[in-house]
TrEMBL record:
<dbReference type="InterPro" id="IPR029068">
    <property type="entry name" value="Glyas_Bleomycin-R_OHBP_Dase"/>
</dbReference>
<feature type="region of interest" description="Disordered">
    <location>
        <begin position="32"/>
        <end position="60"/>
    </location>
</feature>
<dbReference type="InterPro" id="IPR037523">
    <property type="entry name" value="VOC_core"/>
</dbReference>
<protein>
    <submittedName>
        <fullName>VOC family protein</fullName>
    </submittedName>
</protein>
<dbReference type="InterPro" id="IPR041581">
    <property type="entry name" value="Glyoxalase_6"/>
</dbReference>
<dbReference type="Pfam" id="PF18029">
    <property type="entry name" value="Glyoxalase_6"/>
</dbReference>
<feature type="domain" description="VOC">
    <location>
        <begin position="7"/>
        <end position="133"/>
    </location>
</feature>
């Protein structure tokens, strides 16, 4: 049986303020926010949608959607609390410089760090992401 060609094109991340989160990831990754839409019907002013487009060969496009019932995930997981079911892994050449850059654009370094060559941080909405060598 022939398997159809499937290509990962984008990742959608929900957030309480998707346009602000797109700005953060645009700054973090050095990519432009190429699409930004205001709130939909019945959404608050911070609602809407935004997109940070990847250049060719530079990973998937990141989409950001408003989540009305947002609950910040907890990492590491704690019983009874919302936990992160996915996270972004971002390869870096210089871990210390990348962490410094991430913090300068709005990330927070996690207290617990699992490995010497990985740093866990949180974006402004509380999603964990990893920088790794």
């Amino acid at each position: 049986m022939n398997t159809p060609r499937l290509t990962l094109n984008s990742i959608t991340i929900t957030a309480p303020d998707p346009r602000a989160l797109a700005e953060f990831y645009g700054l973090l990754l050095g990519r432009p926010v190429n699409r930004s839409e205001g709130p939909g019907p019945g959404e608050p002013p911070q609602g809407g949608f935004a997109q940070v487009h990847a250049s060719e060969g530079d990973g998937p496009t990141l989409n950001f959607e408003y989540e009305r019932h947002w609950q910040c995930p907890v990492w590491p997981a704690v019983p009874g609390r919302t936990h992160a079911t996915q996270h972004l892994d971002i390869w870096v050449e210089d871990l210390d410089a990348a962490v410094e850059h991430a913090i300068s654009v709005g990330a927070t370094l996690a207290e617990e760090q699992p490995q010497e060559t990985v740093r866990v941080l949180f974006d402004p909405s509380g999603h964990p992401f990893c920088l790794f060598l």
